[in-house]
Amino acid sequence: MAVKIEVDLSPADYQARAATGFGNAVCVVFDILRATSVMVTGLANGAAGFVPAAEIPEALALRSQHRNALLAGERNGLRITAAQSGGVEFDLGNSPREYTRDQVAGRIIISTTTNGTRALRAGVTAQSVAVASFLNLNATADWLAQQPTAQVILVCAGTAEFPALEDILGAGALCELLVRKLAKIQLLDSAETARRVYCEARLDLFGVISRSQNGRRLMANVELRDDVEFCLQRDSCNLVALLGADGVIRRSG
Question: pTM (2 decimals)?
Answer without folding.
Answer: 0.97
